[in-house]
Amino acid sequence: MSFRFDEQELRGLAHRLHRTPPGAARFSDDDLNPEARIIPPGVSPKPAAVLVPLVVGENGLSLLLTERTAHLASHGGQVAFPGGRIDEGDEGPVAAALRETEEETGISRSFVEPLGFLDTYLTGTSYRIVPVVGLVRPGFTLAPHAGEVASVFEVPLAFLMNPDHHLTHSRQWQGKQRFYYAMPYGERYIWGATAGMIRNLYNLLYAPR
User: How far apart are CA 22 and CA 30, in angstroms?
Assistant: First the structure.
């Protein structure tokens, strides 16, 4: 089946997303590493949420991502979805994802229409992430947070939803080989939890049935 990767098609597929935030994490950084796990058993993860922002454009949908500043103590220089911890004042993961997106990128929540949720993802740093899929209408103004975001960029959804671009790479970690998903796009290296969640988006919406 061929896809157009446009707004109308996405709205027709959105029923395949979770309508409410999923409970326990179904996927994690350890999924490809049964012999080299980094998530301690019985860990109490910190609640977090990210926005999976699908931007409407003349040539179809694109996925908006951020590159974190290099000096950050955690995941410096890596490609990530906008998002972060769910604070006590947030009314759930949607509110947290929209707040963090506005703080990190400058995109006002008035431009974002939440469509549903991907499966919950547990990271090696013990964050339990709820990915919120949102449709972003054009006209927004970017204002990246200087202390956290080095750049904001877009990747065509058609590229990311092509399974030929879902690679498996590996690195040495404490004497063991650890594997992870990677989706290189030009000079951008999308990998780890971000690539894992993009893979989940593909499996929920665009994978053959």
Answer: 19
